């Protein structure tokens, strides 16, 4: 598959304009603004095809490859990636390390280790997952990488409930962008499975709501459309209020009466 350039990945601003993303039916989270909508993007697809500065791998503590997106990244990158990973001596959960990208179309791979979801201590899982997103973004900035694509850390084999993981991802990215947004050009959330597509469609508008001007534009367009429809309707002939059969019978009766009189 041909690599997808960062510039071709639709930002939230564009997705709202195209009506591919709708504003949230409930009030966005406190402090949510549209200020980062040009720099946050959403794409469903295979992360190994993205020609961005860095892709973020959902790795394990060994950093020596595995299944899921990790397996896909190692397969597409080739043996050089595994060789470099061997020299990193693993990575702690909630942290991240960086390597070259070898045969991948991106420039670097950031490997982060998400938590295996712990339903008995969800707050621990949440703290570790926040750590993954935060340390990956910190690494990106440190290395001057401006376009970064995240896979859904922990939402596959590690069993983090999709919607919960998505909220943590959006919240952590939002906080980071609020403070360091100028250091990044695009942060892409990459979805793969339908459950994650639904989670992001639902959650992104709560953290990155559409610009009210866009909404005002949309409302204005709807009002204009309604006015146009009204104007067109006024040019149409009046709707008959009498049943055509009744008109015919009245007409016949009148004619009979006239004929009788003459
Ligand atoms: N592109 C984008 N996203 C993908 C792709 C792909 N090619 N393939 C899968 N996903 P997972 P985890 C999504 O299981 O839960 C590995 O064995 C997938 O739909 O890859 O963090 C590691 O070595 C899901 O939303 O990672 C670890 O041992 C997301 O990627 C363990 O799995 C993450 O799913 C890590 O588990």
Automatic annotation (TrEMBL):
It comes from the Eukaryota. InterPro entries: Macro_dom (IPR002589), Macro_dom-like (IPR043472). SUPFAM superfamilies: Macro domain-like. Residues 248-262 have a biased composition (Basic and acidic residues). Gene3D superfamilies: Leucine Aminopeptidase, subunit E, domain 1. Residues 27-208 form the Macro domain. Residues 209-262 are annotated as: Disordered. This is Macro domain-containing protein. It comes from Apiospora phragmitis.
